[in-house]
């Protein structure tokens, strides 16, 4: 065993052992003392300890005097053989192929003999800090290439049960790729539905003599990677032309190839080895997901990146390569390099239709049913597609629909996991982990009898754990839970913050109550409320284009008549969430450059890619009411930004991201035309006067706003001056809200009709609408009561 272990020693460790033996021979010692070996370990040039010793001004002579003095020779409480065996165990745990000086140092510091303790104490070295540094270096083993497996054929190993150390055919590519045509890998991959045309196009390109490298382009979530996995499945099942039979598709992990390549030339050497292996095997096709990352990958000063290394190979057709990336990334990284772009043949993958998405979900649902042990109803599949298409706008089908059914199944699985046996299972797992930890410590300390006893106990607990798991699995298997429409509705409700009741019972029932609710809160503007509710209802019933916002309103009228309050109450009743009300004060956008506050600063300017107060809010809350308050104060260029929102239902921010407004309600308020309202103050003026007033204001508006902006608004609504009865009702409501606060102070309050009429008259004189009512109540009711309390 020891001889086999010696084959695993690194060059440095072998040198240390030989030097210690030579030193012992010189001193005519039969056994090599531990301190001789420690001295050699501590003297290795370029090690972590050598740097620390330099900081402490410890030279070779000082170390020699301390470790080789005669009184320390008998100190053998941890013998060299035991130390090396423990280091060997540590290397095995870390999956290192060689045992090095670093492993021995780690064992010495973790289980220090007396001489090590004395040394650290005398020279003021923190052993725990040193141990942490060693641990970090050993686990990040790229800095110790001699400790990790070399990518070539190696001799037999001492660890036959550990596949990382047994070796295979020595192929480097197997360490950096996944074989998609492997039966075990394919068992975890969903089938590809309704993509035969794209797969056939990919087969056609792969069968070419030259430029046989397809690249799949599509937005995130449309199934680019799944398309390649689908081709791999067809190859495995033999459903491809003869030229592709027995081929294998290896998914290359570019990140792993780059990882650990610290020094110049490491990356090129590694990638060239991979390329040579692929060239030598004509049955290998490589797949690189996010292929745009090859541009610049692994390059440093004076070296080539992955793209330049692959160009000549791809041009000659020596290897077949499939790539996948988004259209934007392809344009940004691949297209600008004409030499690289001509090597690839693009295949555009579009988002599936609703019907196709349903077929895809029906095709893959068995895999999710088996994994989660549930059953999906047909209605659940249909709702997952249609609800995700309607309510989740920042993702694409089929990805967003698959997310819904997966999350609904996970939720159902969590609910069914509250089994009495689960607590017993958890306790058994904790017990097993503790036993394994103690067993490792016992082996390291050479307490083999205790380790054997713990091993027997480990077997018993493992059997118990297995029986518990089998029992739970059987009970769950016999009672699969069904995922129905309600489960999908609950997930979508949680995702986008729409009340579950609104999704379940439909929005029509809510909208029927909206008219009466708003009229109770917005006094004296019944005609405006009716127009607003009618427009929203028309949109919800599908009579309006689905590419536009749900509704857009321009509310005109003097200050204090309820325009902003209407927007607030509308958001509250429709979305049931205060955060669904997004207010933008347009007085902040009086200058042209202020538009960056809405969509973000353009590239090259301060604030680029920083959060902005508008598009980020709408992206997070796609179901919301957006209020542009005092629209007339905004710069015309800022108004132009709203044109795209009103017409197409989306806007692009400074980074080019599309922000969806199709599920928002746009409300704009303005005091525009106040002078016309002042001229037409009549209590209960007729409809003819109302129409004339609207025509006058619209004509005046055309001088300030472009016609295309006015024409894109669903409803332009005039708010009346508040009549005397309306003011009286508003004051009554406000006083009613104030009375509980007054009574809480111990005072009583009463208001007769005469006093109420006086308050109304005062409010009308101020011509400030409902805002004037607040001031009147404060001045004539709240202030006297406060003064009375202070007396």
TrEMBL record:
One Gene Ontology term of the molecular function aspect: ATP hydrolysis activity
Protein's GO biological process: cellular response to heat
Keywords per UniProt: ATP-binding, Chaperone, Coiled coil, Nucleotide-binding, Repeat
Coiled coil regions, renumbered to chain: 418-474
SMART domains linked to this entry: AAA
Keyword Aminoacyl-tRNA synthetase appears in the UniProt entry: no
Pfam families noted in UniProt: AAA, AAA_2, AAA_lid_9, Clp_N, ClpB_D2-small
Start and end residues of each AAA+ ATPase domain: 210-354, 549-695
Cellular component GO terms, alphabetical: cytoplasm
Superkingdom of this protein's organism: Bacteria
Record's protein name: AAA+ ATPase domain-containing protein
Organism: Candidatus Falkowbacteria bacterium RIFOXYC2_FULL_36_12
